[in-house]
Amino acid sequence: MVLKSADHFHDGPLTDVEVRRIRNDFPILDQQVNGNALVYLDSGATSQKPVSVMEAEQEFYEQRNSAVHRGAHTLAVAATDVFEDARATVAAFIGAAENELVWTANATAGLNLIAYSFGNASVGDVPAEARQFAVGPGDEVLVTEMEHHANLVPWQELCRRTGATLTFIPIMEDGLLDMEAAAALFTSRTKVFAFTHVSNVTGVINPVVELTRMAHDVGALVVLDACQSAPHLVLDVKALDVDFAVFSGHKMLAPTGIGAVYGRAELLDAMPPFLTGGSMITTVTMERAGYLPSPQRFEAGTQAISQAAAFAAAVNYLSETGMERIHQWESALGQRMVAGLEDIPGIRVLGPSAGTARAGLAAFEVDGVHAHDVGQFLDASGIAVRVGHHCAQPLHRRLGLSASTRASTYLYNTTDEVDAFLTAVAGVRPYFGITGA
Amino acid sequence: MSALDSLYQQIILEQAKTRTGADLADDQLQGLHLPAGVGQCHQLNPVCGDEITLRVETAGTGSGRAVSGIHWAGDGCSISMASASILSELVVGLGAGEVQGLIDSFREVMRSRGKLEADEEVLGDAAALSGVSKFPARVKCAMLAWVAAEDALNQTG
């Protein structure tokens, strides 16, 4: 594990020297792709993993592997300790209490957990304390036009099942939310407001506190998609005052197969479960079952234990490096990318222009060259980017596109890599024989 | 030739711009009220958003029918658009059985992971797409128009 004691006391963004040291912890980055040094700019899709994370998972299987929350033997206790310590670590990372963090397979599973639990509160014989989650005809579930499909489709389905209506806050040409339109969309009919903290396409950072206040003013529950924020900036769910937040481990140095739902304790304890079965019950008869309080209430079946241990190692790595410093570093890389892209003829960056705050990523259109071809061309130079609609078709449609190319940074990316990327992008249109600006 | 150059041969970049057959009108996209002997198919690659609606017009009946026209509308990468353009130039005038044979040969090459080199005698300009088979992520792009053509042709039988 990289634990450079001196780093703790630094202020300001990471430096290129530190980042080069960080890269030593990520063995995968040290390789050639198509004859060139790998430039990994697809962390928005999934991040690479440091040695300490891989070791945490291996150590669990070598030393402590056992079932958790059952069995009286020593290994079972050790495994349970690892599992619950990991929960405490990840909960603290976002400013939550231990019982407010529910493990899920990933963020998509987390958003579905919330949407299905709301759905379960909307039909049949529902306990009194669960009625606050019910939606039905006449109610509205509000989202935004910039949502990832994972924070859109589950709400469409909830509305289809319950008869509620889906509404959305539109975005403007620069990718920012239309706050004037938003003000009119929060009404007494709004029961749920689900939105992303950071857009995975435009890099727009939404004003969470302001939007949450608007939602709470009309009595709506607030669900925050923190997939693109939890890995990259200081996330404090209490300061943001959201009711629920969801994020994925694999985007923040942890393995695949683990994510988390944050929910305010009193809400999680009142909410009906989604997946039911073993490990989440109190008393079961042939007719009915009672449910444990959160978080066990939402963790039916055997959980991703080694992944939880590794998730804790991942957030430890991030905390030790410093989330604010990581955020500042990536912001600088993002600005460098956008400014550089804007200087290349025929390139249109989606979202805010250079100089305006954005996350450390940039999606762009190359005039005359399809995103898929752009990605292929960059791959030949060893540069890994994402192409397509990035699971945000409505956003692309709004911006008049079906696909774009996205470069997304993380704490291990250098300014040299951003420059190599910009040089390669400048070669795209000439290669495909497209001229003119 | 670099792997990239073998993928993006000049003929492919040109065909991606020429787009022979890309003249299906907006009001024909729904494929409503197709006369006998005409088939139409919409194909979408949800991974990248590549999309094509392709119409096959035939003359004659049964196994004796021949393709008399190909019209399509699409949006996608240079591989998918070039492939649609090449297909359109290749199959007009051929019998239905011959077209199916071409589609089968093309599919076999595309699925070969670079092991099969297309026979230019058989596949004409489509042989230039052989390089695609070394890029598994791009095979669907190249196949898009051919899958649509196969389905549309079957509707005419």
UniProtKB/TrEMBL annotation, chain B:
GO MF annotation terms: iron ion binding; iron-sulfur cluster binding
GO biological process assignments: iron-sulfur cluster assembly
InterPro entries in UniProt: NIF_FeS_clus_asmbl_NifU_N
NIF system FeS cluster assembly NifU N-terminal domain sequence ranges: 36-141
Top-rank lineage group of the source organism: Bacteria
Gene3D superfamilies tied to this protein: 3.90.1010.10
UniProt protein name: SUF system NifU family Fe-S cluster assembly protein
